[in-house]
Write a structure and sequence with these properties.
- It is a single chain.
- With about 140 residues, the protein is mainly alpha-helical.
- The chain has a domain at about 5-85 and about 125-140: Winged helix-like DNA-binding domain superfamily/Winged helix DNA-binding domain (Arc Repressor Mutant, subunit A), CATH 1.10.10.
- The protein is built from six helices and two strands.
- The chain has a two-stranded antiparallel ribbon.
- Strand 1 (about 55-60) and strand 2 form a beta hairpin.
- Helix 1 (about 5-20) crosses helix 3 (about 40-50), helix 1 (about 5-20) crosses helix 4 (about 75-85) and helix 1 (about 5-20) packs across helix 6.
Length: about 140
Amino acid sequence: MKISTKGRYALRMLYDLAIHQEEGYISLKDVAERQNISKKYLEQIVPLLNKTGLLRTNRGNKGGYMLAGKASEISVGDILRATEGSLAPVACLEFEPNECPRAGDCSTLFVWEGLYSAITDYLDGISIQDIIERNSSMGGDYCI
């Protein structure tokens, strides 16, 4: 599995919104400048994050974006599922129940189930708040 630029930039965007949350709604222009990401690219990511309820938006003079929830409650897995789709390493695990006609006889299914479990457990176990805390303990900018 390879995480796309869209997934990486979405994580950086939400991280940026989290560390500037006391400022209220943040413009995409500000996020783009701080994260060195094209504003146009962020505009493509916003609908995906809005649709899944990770972002709150406000239009108008004081408009912009902020996290829809607490940084401690938004996981890296949530963000990557919003931008990448399923995190399943093989197509047969994308839906529950597994409808693959070979699932009952597949001698390698346990390998893919184990990998999927490891991926989701790991990514769902890291919140934006965890990234903030790790970054502050390391004393530098977080690079994704």
